[in-house]
Amino acid sequence: MDYVQHPIAGEYSVYLLQTILPPSLAMTLLPTPTSQWTLGDAVGTPVVFELGQQYNCGARSLPFSKVSFGEAKLQIPYVRRRELKEGALDTTDAWVTYKKRIWMDNRLFATSTPVMYGLSTQYCSRVGFGMEALDGQHYADYIVRQGDEVPLLLFKRDVTPRFVRDTDASYWEMLGKHDWIGDRTSTFAAHVFDWQGRQVEKVSGVIHLRLEAVEDAARAFGDAGFKVNRSTRSEEETVEIPVDGILVQRLPHKMTRPQMTYW
User: Fold this and answer.
1) Which domains does the chain carry?
2) How far apart are the first and last CA of the chain?
3) Which domain of life is it from (predicted)?
4) pTM
């Protein structure tokens, strides 16, 4: 597929993590009406968390516009409409990634992405890597929180990675080539990542997702049998989601716009 270059580029250090949901539950996370969509696997659907930090991200032609900020995403790959343009059904180009929710600690980007790309984006005061104490004893390797509230999302790594389904970058490189959509499903975009020479680290752990952060998604995880907990500090409930994947540092990328659409 031919692309036109978008001026935004930068580097991305990121945990790329996934879990698997039954397709019937994953379908409930897609834009309504859900009957318009089909998923790529009849047995299990990957649900992906990107937990990252953007570095020097902005327009190449405007150096002063480049900023660094935390950005976390919940997304579902291998999604397409049941009715596509003629000739698209037999091509892998028909698959897109649906970005369900994005959290950012940069107000400008959090405000502009819903307008430009139709993405469901929330500004949070803390989005990023770190070993931040929680409840006086627990630590998080990545956290999304608003002020002093119970975190919307936190990730705690296993000291020794358990079994990781996809142990190299090729799986994630393939997913990264998919165009993506948000809630405004007629707007397409993509990131082009430069994986050459990148070293990846296998990781696994547990994501704690607050139910009210993305209520339909959190409840889908609960319905899939993942453990639901009530906070000791409040009445907030969180669901524990076992995940595995990779950590990659300083991955160069640029944003592009497809010259074609699928529907």
Assistant:
1) 3-258 (2.40.400)
2) 15
3) Eukaryota
4) 0.90
DSSP string for 121-151: EEE-SEEEEEEEEETTTEEEEEEEESTTSPP
Q: Where are the beta strands (DSSP E) in 161-236?
A: 179-181, 190-193, 200-210, 228-230
| Residue 154, CB-side half-sphere exposure with 13 Å CA sphere | 19
Calpha distance 41→15 (Å, rounded): 23
Q: Which of 116, 94, 118, 107 is nearest to 7 (CA)?
A: 116
Residuewise pLDDT in 10s, the chain (263 residues): 333 444 688 999 999 999 999 999 999 999 988 888 999 877 789 999 999 999 988 776 666 678 999 999 999 999 988 876 665 545 555 789 999 999 999 999 999 999 989 999 999 999 999 876 655 556 789 999 998 888 899 999 998 877 666 556 888 988 888 899 999 988 888 888 999 888 899 999 999 999 888 888 888 998 999 999 876 666 788 999 999 999 999 999 988 876 555 66
Backbone angles phi, psi at 115, to 5 degrees: -75, -45
DSSP, res 6: E
In the chain, the DSSP E strands lie at 3-21, 37-39, 45-59, 67-81, 96-104, 121-123, 126-134, 138-145, 153-157, 179-181, 190-193, 200-210, 228-230, 237-258
